[in-house]
From TrEMBL, chains A, B:
SUPFAM superfamilies from the UniProt entry: Winged helix' DNA-binding domain
Organism of derivation: Methylobacterium brachythecii
Listed name of the protein: ArsR family transcriptional regulator
A molecular-function term among this protein's GO annotations: DNA binding
Coiled-coil annotated spans: none
Listed PANTHER family: ARSENICAL RESISTANCE OPERON REPRESSOR ARSR-RELATED
Length: 112, 112
DNA sequence: TCGACGTTTAGACAATCGTCGAAATGTTGG
DNA sequence: CCAACATTTCGACGATTGTCTAAACGTCGA
């Protein structure tokens, strides 16, 4: 599953557009856990793609926990996943992060 | 105005510098709850200061809950509180938000 | 084919979280 | 002084979360 997880028919898009309220909340929540943020940082650093098992956290927590965090990052739109045989490539979605930063700035700016 | 109150003994006070790892995590967590983010938005909107009881959420949840969120926002450094008689003035700390945005951008940028 | 490997799912558990009501604290005005 | 008000603290509750183990799934190589 390389796409998203909308549940009420509202698709969770990852264009350079604005984030829906739901996706904005999902991104904020995804960034709130230090371990998850660390994983995201690693994915963002290795621009391109890397499999789950290459994450440095892979030997700090169980595979199930990694999978859980990956799913949450994907649901929020911060990363995309691409199956490559046995592996799953993790791709950072910078557009989502940028949209989050924009909305955060905008919705807390004095002229809002 | 740009320098924090010199001799108050207020807990969290930081310049427009970098956030510590702990404060970065605290800000991320503080922003992760929609209601708390809404409260922060209201505080940021009324640039200057407003008391807790003036928050629009004040009639949606109990006073205890408001107080809890206020404390979390204050602990993270996103707002400051100033007692004004019976009231507590809430002051948005834009420098903290800006520092958070900067660190978020920087730590997820390709050249990190 | 079969077994090893990467990943996901299911189920469970403790910790944390958002919320509440009630009581306490502190402050102002009559 | 006292009553009303703003806020905080306390203790509790259900929901969510991060984590685990065990099992299942899917894919490759020998």
């Amino acid at each position: 599953m390389t796409s998203e997880h909308g549940q009420d028919g509202e698709p969770v898009a990852q264009e350079s557009h604005e984030l829906s309220d739901r996706q904005f909340a999902a991104v904020a929540k995804a960034l709130a856990d230090p371990r998850r943020f660390g994983i995201l940082g690693e994915i963002a650093a290795s621009e391109g793609a890397l499999p789950c098992c290459a994450l440095s956290d892979a030997d700090k927590v169980s595979a199930a926990t990694i999978s859980h965090h990956i799913k949450e990052l994907e649901t929020s739109g911060l990363i995309a996943t691409v199956r490559k045989g046995r592996f799953v490539e993790l791709v950072f979605q910078r557009t989502t992060l940028d949209a989050y930063l924009r909305r955060l700035s905008r919705s807390l700016s004095p002229t809002s």
